[in-house]
Structure prediction request, 195 residues.
Amino acid sequence: MLKEKLKNYNLILASGSPRRQDFFKELGLDFAIDIRPVEELFPEELEGTDITDHLARLKASVFSNLKAQDILVTSDTIVWFNGVALNKPEDRDEAHAMISALSGSTHEVITSVAFTTATAQTVINDTTKVTFKDLTEEEINYYIDNFKPYDKAGGYGIQEWFGYIAVTSIEGSYFNVMGMPLHKVYETLMLLADS
Prediction:
């Protein structure tokens, strides 16, 4: 249905995330992947959704030659905990520190998605609350050593072994935690296709 509506558009996903690419495939969409380097920096006064909105827009800003039928999709995900944005860990020590901090508590996973055309831009975001059990040192070390979660905001992937054993409750979109609020992405693309 959505694929048919988008048949006259060129959908471009600017993401190296295998999960986001799989989402678009699972939605049955025809799309191209175009990843361009951008330094993911944001003003330090920004908080929560303002950070991910800014970064999703920033990733779109390096595409200056969009054609009339192009729809560019860029996105960013952070873990928001105690007023601090947790991005992707740089190394093992940082991953360990992140997961240890999240142990036994609730955090928010925030994703923003920007839909950019030659003439306009729409930005959506979604927030999911995730609660972890109290994790043991053995569990944390096992996960980091075996799954090396350095490409994931907050240092974990909910769809992996860690999510199976650590998550005690989730409030909101599960897919948002994986990197894209699919229900909102679908609705937004439907609206763009109809406009």
